[in-house]
Write a structure and sequence with these properties.
Chain A: It comes from Rhodobacter viridis. Chain A: InterPro entries: AMP-binding_CS, AMP-dep_synth/lig_dom, ANL_N_sf. Chain A: Residues 20-497 form the AMP-dependent synthetase/ligase domain. Chain A: GO terms for molecular function: long-chain fatty acid-CoA ligase activity. The complex is a heterodimer. Chain A is an alpha/beta fold. Chain A has four domains: 4-279, ANL, N-terminal domain (Rossmann fold, 3-Layer(aba) Sandwich), CATH 3.40.50; 298-326 and 333-416, no CATH class; 442-534, Luciferase, domain 3 (Roll); 539-719, GMP Synthetase, Chain A, domain 3, CATH 3.30.300.30. Chain A is built from 24 helices and 28 strands. Chain A has a five-stranded parallel β-sheet with strand order 4-3-5-6-7, sandwiched between helices. A five-stranded mixed β-sheet of chain A has the order 12-13-14-15-16. In chain A, strands 24-25-26-28-27 form a five-stranded mixed β-sheet, with helices on both faces. In chain A, β22 (539-540) and β23 form a beta hairpin. In chain A, α1 (13-24) packs across α9, α12 (301-322) crosses α15 (390-413) and α12 (301-322) crosses α16 (430-438). The longest helix of chain A has 35 residues, at 335-369. The longest helix of chain B is centred in the middle third of the chain and has 19 residues, at 137-155. In chain B, the strands form three sheets. Chain B has a six-stranded mixed β-sheet with strand order 8-9-10-5-11-12, with helices on both faces. A four-stranded antiparallel β-sheet of chain B has the order 4-3-6-7, covered by helices on one side. The model of chain B is unreliable at 1-14 (pLDDT under 50). By secondary structure, chain B is of the alpha/beta class. Classes of the chains: A alpha/beta, B alpha/beta. At the A-B interface, loops of A face α5 and α7 of B.
Chain lengths: 720, 272
């Protein structure tokens, strides 16, 4: 039902909007929770609002080719502002809302925005702060008017007032607006997104309507998305992923975009909406899992036992019995199907009753034998009578788990309706991946880039694994360069970097191949792509062995107690690491183990925490040693940092990727200490608070040795 | 400049209206202890009036006099042009005076939403029976009040704890919930007893912002007691300084800051 639903080739986002009004006029297009209630806008209503906003923009004098910066959290009004800007022939430029004024100044200056749409007072303040340096800003609009009364309103307006102005003047602006919409072609610019700037200044990636629409079409068809999907828009609007999901795919497939009430209520809203199509970076899935595990630790014995039993069981059976068979026909269930369901449920209930009764009997017998420690001797098993063949038994067992554990858990997490979930941005831990998949959540990985309009490779249903990023997306060609770097060419390939032809030329060659900067290889046999690391981060150690820090860091980060890890060793004879502990997980662990601490710093320096982290590192070393290519990356010495790595201090990008060079420079003293054999070091670190003020943290950090697994080296010597 | 008639403008550009409450020669004694000694000052509509002073200066007693909880031994309280006599607590609430407490006084077992709803008690008109039966007026009324409460929740950015029992909240948030409950009563005068005590810098800044926004958005007259001088100087339009039950200073923050008596009271002075 999806393919024919995509309609004729619309050339631009505004054209798609008009098409959606025709196709799905009365279906919900946007929802936002306001004052505790979900407010709904249908496609028809949204289109009216967007047109009015566009006319309001015209009344302010928005010209073709203008840039309109949009800074704020995910709200329908901000998405509308982007589409309204496109209608006027202008280019929307969404910005990261947690950027400090300095970073914002660069982007605003670079794109030459004449108009800025701000979410709230905080964002307006930042714009006002940089306004004396950037003279081209003509008008500022804001969506939330609290605290805005005392501002100078000669060049500032509430966005709703602009919309009202557009409505009032619709006779004057309608003709001009229709003319401008008609001028839009597949080649006109759809959006400009700034890269997070892992290295150097952010670059403005220009994406055309063709890029966005064709990519969205291909991916919608790939995952059979329809107009009845619900997505939760909570990721930064400045990120290409959010643009593709909440505007590109939403417009193409005609599904509903739900905006949370505030960033803090995201988990509650997720639960209330129950998205069917969900996207999250690994970090979100990690946090969810950590929370589940922490709460399970506090649960009663019965619940804990059942959780453990069924999660263990689902690891092997989840892929077979758990995956949602989505895209069921939307026709009413026939009598036969109803019978089948009834039969299955009856059999399932019979099976679980049988199991439970037998286990109760078993427990009673064990209790008689071992009155004091029956828990130790009791093991729950399947039914003795064994009336069912093994696959049917597994099926029933899984269904029992679904009824008792998986469904309630998915419901609590807000993932019960998920048909397709994606994770990308970084590698996800195999345990985390397995956890969600075994519960019956169709979590898949994709590999993408801003420059590719997200999709480069993705995993088709039924071929999902934790260690690959899938096969090339439809319409995308991928090749591996000589140095192992991944190149791609696709309809989604960006037009250019704004005002930066040199970078454009160095990234995209004449034939349209784009270098990703990541090193990877195609797995023989399956054709799946595996990413090792950033191509420039993959280095050589002093003795010529391969050094892939990200590979090791990811393995470390899969432990819930490790939030971040930074591995050093390029050009040196051995590897060392900085570790950041996860305060939630380690704090809970400390609570359960009666470890008192007063601060993050104290907890990080606690001997027992060191002990735990060292065990993790030893385990990682053993696993790294398995891989003969990368066995040089074992960690010899490590320390636990006294502060969390933070984007405000420039140590991470806004998308929370580690800035290796900055860290190497800032903590040069610590790195030196890691290599000169000292057992502790005193250090002072400058930190930036959220309001921009600076302070210093002083600490004495201990440095410990980890156990290096010997196998691989012996193996290698033997091989030579 | 601020003492001339109605509708004057403060330095920050906020408008301050006519006198809302006037305290004339207030003295408060508890047996032999004189808590407040002959103090007079006024509170104007729409201003943020701070009362500061060292420990034991009589600030909280003063706030209790304003709220009508204590009846002054001598002196008069004039509120909106009328002299005020002894009152029952519900009368105070109906007059439009709401307050927060130095040590939080919320219902721990109830959710944030319910706690804030209690603030609207005096504004509800349906009878006990109707409310118990959930019939007719009561149901419609609740919707209306819930809407107001949701606006306040949105305003104070506590949407994420709407349904959390107050007992589970950290201190800073409890303070914010208390402010929300006081605001829900749509008060003429909002009394804040040390709204920022025990908070960290970030929470203090948030609270400051909320107090300013409340004053700005709802035009609520605010009287606050606070120890943090930085906060007081930033927030308030006018400051009363007390020491040992006496008033030793009154005026805009800058004026008070340079007052020698105030400096002595805070820094201590050698009593010869």
């Amino acid at each position: 039902m999806t393919d024919q639903d995509q309609g004729p080739a619309a050339q631009s986002i505004p054209a798609l909007l008009a098409l959606n009004v025709e196709r799905y006029g009365n279906r919900p297009a946007y929802r936002e929770k306001e004052f505790g209630i979900w407010q709904v806008w249908t496609w028809a209503e949204a289109a009216t609002e967007i047109r009015a906003m566009a006319m309001g923009f015209l009344s302010l004098g928005v010209e073709r080719g203008d840039h309109i910066a949009i800074i704020g959290r995910n709200r329908p009004a901000h998405y509308w502002a982007m589409v309204a800007a496109q209608m006027c022939g202008a280019v929307p430029v969404p910005l990261y809302q947690d950027a400090v004024a300095e970073e914002m100044a660069y982007v605003l200056d670079h794109c030459g925005a004449r108009f800025v749409v701000c979410g709230d007072q905080e964002q307006v303040d930042k714009v006002v702060e940089v306004e004396d340096r950037i003279h081209h800003i003509q008008h500022v609009m804001y969506t939330d008017k609290r605290g805005m009364r005392k501002y100078d309103h000669s060049r500032m307006n509430h966005l709703a007032d602009i919309v009202a102005e557009g409505k009032a003047g619709h006779f004057r602006y309608e003709g001009e607006l229709d003319k401008r919409i008609a001028e839009l072609t597949t080649d006109s610019t759809c959006v400009m997104l700034y890269t997070s700037g892992t290295t150097g200044k952010p670059k403005g990636v220009v994406l055309s309507n063709r890029n966005i629409i064709e990519t969205a079409r291909a991916s919608v068809a790939f995952d059979h998305l329809g107009c009845d999907e619900d997505v939760l828009a909570y990721l930064p609007m400045a990120w290409v992923g959010d643009f593709i999901f909440s505007i590109g795919q939403a417009m193409v497939a005609g599904f509903c975009v739900n905006c949370p009430e505030s960033p803090a209520t995201m988990m509650t809203d997720l639960r209330e909406i129950g998205p069917t199509y969900f996207f999250a970076p690994p970090r979100i899935f990690e946090t969810m899992l950590t929370n589940v595990m922490i709460r399970m630790e506090d649960a009663g014995d019965l619940k804990h036992g059942m959780f453990k039993h069924f999660m263990e069981f689902a690891k092997t059976t989840g892929e077979t019995y758990g995956m949602p068979r989505y895209r069921v026909k939307r026709s009413k269930p026939t009598l036969r199907r109803r019978w089948r369901w009834a039969w299955r449920y009856a059999m399932g209930i019979g099976f679980s009753v049988e199991t439970m009764v037998e286990n109760a009997v078993r427990l009673a017998i064990v209790r008689l034998r071992h009155p004091m420690e029956h828990r130790k001797h009791f093991h729950a098993r399947g039914p003795l009578l064994n009336l069912y063949p093994q696959p049917l038994r597994d099926y029933f067992d899984y269904r029992t788990g679904e009824v008792t554990i998986f469904s309630p858990l998915k419901n609590t997490l807000g993932l019960s309706r998920v048909r397709v979930a994606y994770t990308a941005g970084e590698a996800i831990g195999p345990e985390i991946f397995e956890f969600y998949r075994s519960m019956g959540i169709n979590l898949k990985q994709l590999y993408g880039q801003t420059e590719a309009s997200v999709f480069i490779t993705q995993q088709p249903d039924g071929q999902v694994r934790a260690d690959t990023v899938g096969v090339p997306s439809p319409g995308v060609e991928v090749k591996i360069g000589e140095n192992g770097e991944v190149f791609y060419r696709s309809p989604g390939t960006f037009v250019e970097y704004f005002k930066n032809p040199e970078s454009t030329a160095s990234t995209k060659d004449a034939e349209g191949w784009v270098a990703t900067g990541d090193a990877g290889f195609f797995e023989p046999g399956t054709g799946h792509l595996r990413i090792i690391d950033r191509a420039k981060d993959v280095g050589k150690m002093a003795d010529g062995r391969l050094f892939a820090p990200k590979y090791v860091e990811n393995k470390l980060k899969f432990y819930p107690s490790i939030l971040e890890a930074v591995v050093f060793g390029g050009g040196r004879d051995r590897c060392t690491a900085f570790i950041n502990i996860d305060l939630t997980a380690v704090g809970n662990w400390a609570e359960r183990n009666n470890i008192a601490y007063a601060s993050y710093q104290e907890l990080a320096g606690h001997p027992q925490v060191y002990q735990m982290i060292r065990e993790h590192i030893d385990a990682v070393n053993r696993s790294v040693a398995q891989d003969p290519m990368l066995s040089g990356c074992q960690i010899h010495r490590f320390l636990i940092l006294h502060k969390e790595l933070d984007a405000d201090d420039g140590e991470m990008t806004r998308t929370r990727k580690v800035r290796r060079n900055v860290i190497a420079e800032k903590y040069a003293d610590l790195i030196a200490a890691l290599y000169d054999g000292r057992s502790s070091i005193y250090t002072e670190t400058e930190v930036t608070y959220e309001d921009g003020r600076k302070g210093a943290i002083k600490a004495t950090l201990r440095i410990e040795d980890a156990i290096v697994a010997p196998e691989a080296r012996i193996h290698k010597e033997a091989a030579e | 400049m601020k003492d001339t008639g109605a509708g004057i403008t403060t330095a920050e550009g906020g408008s301050v209206g006519p006198v809302l409450m006037e305290l004339r020669n207030i003295t408060l004694r508890f047996g032999g202890v004189v808590a407040i000694k002959d103090i007079s000052f006024d509170i104007r509509e729409g201003e943020i009036r701070a009362i500061i002073g060292p420990n034991g200066a009589g600030k909280s007693s003063m706030l209790n006099v304003i709220s009508g909880f204590y009846v002054p031994t001598e002196g008069e309280v004039w509120f909106r042009g009328e002299k005020r006599g002894p009152m029952k607590p519900y009368q105070v609430a109906r007059l439009g005076i709401a307050r927060t407490f130095q040590n939080i006084a919320l219902f721990d077992g109830m959710s944030v939403l319910d706690n804030i709803m209690t603030g609207r008690l005096t504004l509800m008109h349906s009878g006990l029976l109707s409310q118990a039966m959930w019939w007719g007026k009561a149901a419609a009324e609740e919707d209306e009040h819930r809407e107001k409460v949701e606006k306040i929740i949105d305003f104070l950015e506590i949407q994420n704890i709407r349904k959390t029992p107050v007992g589970r909240l950290p201190y800073g948030l409890k303070k914010r919930v208390e402010l929300a409950r006081a605001l829900a009563a749509e008060p003429k005068i909002l009394l804040l007893d040390e709204p920022m005590a025990g908070m960290n810098v970030e929470e203090k800044e948030d609270m400051c912002r909320f107090i300013l926004d409340v004053n700005d958005e709802f035009g609520t007259t605010t009287v606050l007691i606070e120890h943090d001088m930085g906060v007081v100087m930033d927030l308030s339009d006018r400051v009363v300084v007390m020491d040992y039950g006496r008033k030793i200073g009154d005026g805009p923050p800058d004026e008070v800051r340079n007052n020698q008596d105030v400096i002595d009271a805070y820094l201590g002075v050698a009593h010869a």
